[in-house]
Amino acid sequence: MHQSHFFKLRLRAFSSFLFGVLLIFLLASSVSAFQADSLAIDTTLTGVQLGATAWGDYDNDGDLDVVITGTTNGGSSGAVAEIWDNDGSGNFTKNTSVSSSLTGAYRSGAAFGDYDNDGFLDLVIIGYNTSGTPTTTLYNNDEDGTFSTVSGTGFTDGSWASASWGDANNDGYLDLYLGGLPSSGTRFNTIYLNDKDGTFTDATAGILGSAGGDFVHADYDNDGDLDVAIAGYTNSGYAQSKFFRNDNGTYNEVSAISSLLLANDNATMEWGDFDNDGDLDLFNSGGGSAKILINDGSGGLSNSGLSFSGVWDGYADWSDYDLDGDVDLLYIGNNSGSKSFLYDNDGDGTFTLNTDFSLTIAEQGTVDWVDVDNDGDADLFITGYLSTGSRTASLYKNNEVTTNTAPSTPVLNNITFNGSETILSWNPSNDTEGGTPSYNAFLYSLTTSQMIVEPQSDTTSGFRKVLDMGNMRFDTSRTLSLAEGRYSLGIQAIDAAGKTSVFAKSTFEVVFPDPVDSLRGERVNDTFTLTWDPTVGATSYKIYFTTDTTSQSTFTASTTDTSYSGTIYPGSTIFYSVKVVDSNNVESVASNYVEIENPFNFQLHSTHSNQILDIASGPSAVRHKSDIDWVDYDNDGDLDVSIIGEGGGYTGIMAIFEYDAITGFTQDKDFVNTDIILDFGEADWGDYDNDGDLDFVVAGYDDVESANVATVYRNKGSGVFNEVTDIKIALSAQSLPRASIRWVDIDNDGDLDIFHNGVTGISRSFLYRNNGNDSFVDANFTFNTLFNSSTLHLAVDEGEIELIDINNDGYIDVSGTGRISIGFPFTGISINSKDNQFTDSGNSLTYFADSSLEWGDLDEDGDPDLVLMGYDSGNSALKTEIYLNDGSGNLSLHSTLDGYRRGDIALGDIDNDGDLDLVISGLTNNTDYSTAGNKVFSNDLSRSNTFIELTGSTLAGLGRGNLVFADYDKDGDLDLIMNGQDASGYKSYIYENTVVTAGTAPGKPSNLSLVVKQEEISITWNAATDANGGPLHYEAFVLKPDKTPVFYAKSDISNGFRQVSALGNAGYNNLITLDVANLERGNYTIGVQAIDATGLAGEFAIEQIPIRAYFTPFGISALKDTVTTIPLSTFQRHSFLNDSTLTLSLRSAPNAQLFIDADNDYVMDAGEVKLDSTGFNLSLLATDSLRISSNTTGFEDIILKITTPSGSVVDSATIQLAMFESSPSISGTADTGGWYLMANPLQTTLGSLFGTIWTQGAINADSESGTPNLYFFNPDSAKYIAITTDLDTTKAKAGQGILAYIFPDDNYNDAIDPVEGGWPKSLINYGEPFKVNEPVVIKNTDVDGNGFTSGSEGFVLMGNPYGLPVSVDSLIAELVKIDPYANRYVYLWDPIEKQYNLNLTGFVNAYESFFVRTIQSGISGSMVFEYDDVHESARLKRTETTNPIELNLFAGDLSTGEYAIRLGEEADVAIDPLDGYYLGSFASNFANLYSTIGDQPLVLNNLPIGLTEELEIPLFLHSTESGEHTLEWSVNDLPKDWRVELENPATGEIIKLSEQSSYTFEFTSGQFKAKSTREPTPELFAFHAAKMKTKASQSDLILRINPGVATSGENDLDIPKEVELYQNYPNPFNPTSVIRFGVPEQSNVKLEVFDILGRRVATLLNNEIKPAGRYNISFVGNNLASGMYLYRLSVGNKVIVKKMTLIK
User: Fold this and answer.
1) Model confidence over 1428-1447: pLDDT tens digits?
2) In 707-816, which residue ranges form alpha helices assigned H by DSSP?
3) N or C, which terminus of the chain has less Cβ within 10 Å?
4) What is the layout of strands, in order, in the sheet containing 740-744?
5) Least confident span in 198-212, 437-451, 1203-1217, 1490-1504
């Protein structure tokens, strides 16, 4: 393994599937920078494969030597490790004596590094030795040109390995990065920190183990420490790529970056600043792909969008080899054979593939840019296996004629100090070539004669001894903690080609002030005071604390006094110390420690706990993620306790314990008549009927009814409840097991809706909208969070759902964590988009299982932050993660704490210091309740930016229960109720808080206001004040003039008493928005109260605000260049005003004109009033006519100001105007006619639409005789129907397509020529547009009665219903809502090109129709095109991406649209939604190519990228021509092993597509004749033509694809590297499909099939023993209904699930 000279701090290992590592540079060329012959300048070095190289000046003679490891014969017996000495000119001699002391290694890593800072490079080698045993050896440089083996390092032995050096903790000493596969089989990526005494300490800190891939480190975020990325085959059993940010020695995954990396077991990653902006970008290749992630300079990486050829088994390196000031990219790998790619950096953010070089192929090797002859440019070194069977180690010299000048020497700045830290800084260097240099430093202690920071360069000449970038990276400063003494400092610059400057040098001294002599401390109640004597020279003092005197202290405060007081952390022992700060800002050493101890302030209330335990029905408590809560259910001013869940004996419990300050808790035996007994359940409290009493909704499994139920109990007052049967019936239609159910005003209409979810094999979620009068209806909302499917929702098992406004937009969002589908961990957030849709937030969160989440304002910035806890299966760790919110719903990981699984989280201010503290509980083993535990963390973000664990906690540890805070005893602090299970059984506990200082309630909010805008009211207020200064949340209410509620509070509005423990209904916002229609006029009462972090609620601020009127927007559809009337009643209807007159004026400057048409002549005359900003009176009861006109098409909002006679003003009244095209132009070709697919966006007749076009064959046509030239399409028969009815009365429906043959001659009544009209033609079509959101009917009729879609069934000819273009994306999205399996293309006929275009995106123009296709037989529905989906843009043809295989057919001068093969992860060999159908041709002469699957002809076949068996695709010609036909093709980026060939069955010819690009052959048509232009007859769909060929035996050509996967178990290629489960074939299927899987070793295999509800419908394999190999299992669904099914493969601990669809 080598360490690259440019920014490549990387670790690389080789896979058993490593293919071509390329390059023998370069043939003669006038532009070549390399030696102008095809032979290497030096091939005497030992040739190896499966090895690594390390470059370094180990003998300090001023040139770079090389260590070569690998195998000379492909096996362990040939393993070598050799050192070759450089003579300074790039000539190498093997150092036999030193080489003999090294252990040979292959599948290896190797790296030079001066780990002991003695100025001589040491060496580490890892890999298989000559015995085939993994080894790791550290060699110390003896400073005489020899090495000694260092024993007792504790390094893990490894193979498939990686090795490199880097200063992970910035202490000036090199640490070691090792990765690989040991004999134990547990892969590792380990960082060994240098202890500075010759020993190392493992500091991996959670980095995922891998082997056979990459392990690279770099300071990507320029924060001064090294971050890491890994790729390879991991211990989870599959390939992964992960990125970890170094946060002060803790490595936290950055999921947003991990998701961008290519997950491949032999992926490569290389850092380089390709855009010269001073931060590192990342090249990543693997799995047949390659890309650059560009660094935004602030810790973010994103895909650059640059296009690169993809490779497998890649190896890359950056260098400015051509000395133009920017780094170029060279990488190698397999791309349909071994390949190399050299991309020259153009200096403008783009690259150009350099094709000037002829390269020889090698594989399983390495490539290094390295200046071996010290001439300032990068030479090239290659090792690897050649196709001749030999191994190579070849060196090529760079003959670049440009001289590389060294960068300028940096200029050192004065040394500054910050506390105990010394700040070194320097000015940037300049580089003549224009690149961005890195910087390299040495720091030498003149006091102790020790090198503190080792430069790995000669400090006199500046010669760089290794290939790494400088140890300061791109930084121009570095902060170090130095002891007192004198130091020598040096800084040099290193350019992009490795050229170095000399060192700039200086000396400086570090002197500390005298420390505090004696620190004293005392505690008084819950505060403490530190005192000390003044110190001479002190300007201030800093206070530090720690929980352990052996750990590093944390800064907490600064003062100029000689005393300091603070709050004590409950349940903790804290050690405080003080440091002196002098006038130079230098800190002294720490004083003595003072210990401050405080007992834990939660004490078990045994009496109350026992009262909760004493449940009359027998069991002692509840378990199984039971639901326990505080609630004042009886409105008596005390918080009671509600419990629901499963108790002992698996019996459901629903109980209320009423609280009394004197008697404690007593169970309400009459609560809901004890007739609801639920387990696996949940309840929630809320006033759904706005009557001032708390009702509850409950869901779970009813032990009495033996069914999942969900129901509502209405509170009739004083805690008396009745079940609402009608609501129960509505909810139970979709009741779910393992349910979660919540009250939530999801639509902001002022009343509580119901959110209900659970797991039925897959996750399901439902929202029931409150319509009032005890009526709830399914809102049919959708999530786009998971699988982009409306049937798989954000819902969880063994997890938690929380509803909260995450992005502060006033609407409730949804968050969830746990297991989805059948056992998959998931965490997600869906944002409420206010249109019955929820979309993914874009946050990258850890996927936890057995998990919990909680929201709260942890950092006191006014938005909710996230606490997430559970089992991270990807890293096999229990975690609690803290994510901070930026205010817009974007979350960033702040810190990671210890965690539990199957537990709970509670946030509350337990110590009354104003911030939210954290309590967690749960299990460390998911089935062992003896592992139940709890942890308490004090929030110290405002001071030390951390959470401090309080080690003195006396709380019980319980699993599968709840933690809930509330001040139930009203003493001003938060108490805690908890329940669950430990090793001895099921428990419930109440803990009283004994904090000394009681909290005080916050004050009232101020400046309440209410804004009415259209059908929306917004309440705003200024924040309240709180003595503790912590985060506040708010509860609000709105009362109508008659005092009935619009929106009710869960607090007593008379005294502010909080009736629940939940977050306020306004969250942390100072705003609440309600969507309310038909508000009456009058005085409304609004109130808002503040609630602090301890749950203390202040009094309501209450105001009365009058509402006079408001205005709702309305849409007007009009035609360009016409005058349209706006009915006067519209203003009355949309303003809810009954005034006889209104004054209108403009608040915007529209393109359209509005005027009063006094004489009703539809013309704006000189004397008529035009609407402007001054306004005019509009009489609602008079005869005034308001007109509107515009000479442009498009959309605009006309914003009006409306004033009533009484002076009430309504702001922002809006007319949404849509101006449609009325006179479109139609283009044609020369003097020929043609077929057009058209639509009518107006409610006019066909006679009006085609008034300027020749028509025939219909009543009132231009000629009533002749073949009709207008047709509708009948989806029931899939046939065109000629229009022969009266054109003056016949109309097209909204969205109905029309097929029209348009003649060039507009007058066929003339005897002969000339042609009248010609092209282009203009329609004149004035009339009423279809209304906004006109539904367009779509259906799939089973014509042949076989129960599934076949032939031409499912096709519908739809027309654009608007006079403007419509987005294809929106069309497809609407189509998929009706049929999730629908074809994903819109088929548009191009009358000029005379071919169909398959559109995935783009636009359908006005007056144009198109085909779509549904797949589910018998389906029917309506599509609605929103105006917001209408855009103006150019058409995009066919597809927007390059297809791997494209074939074009030519017949004479006729050219056609291509036939294409596309590859996709979710594609099927059978028909799938991204296959494109062949619809024939409307052209007179054509030559087209198509394939078939069954009776379905295709022009685009979407195949799985994981194709495992040879596939023959029959190709057919549909052509009117006979004679010579030519087929041309292009092949792009096919998978590496695929072989594609073409066969002509008639001649037996076989053509390999990789070896030529065209094929000419003879074809006899005789089947199709040119159509008469005088008597046009539309061709039906091609597959309905009588002479159409669809059978493979009749095919004209055969396209054969061999994916290179062996079918014989004797071939190693047929043994998968990991457990694999492929997509079933065919899919959809009826009734039989084949399921294919693979196992890498003999295993017990279980293969099962489940329905969508999670019920097992078939067991195909039941723990059967299968040897290593791939298998096909047949599944027959004769007895199953149509629908989606899941098939699950279980092999050991690996479980894989895929979906399949049965369509009958």
Assistant:
1) 444 333 333 334 445 788 88
2) 725-732
3) C
4) 740-744, 753-759, 763-770, 776-778
5) 1203-1217
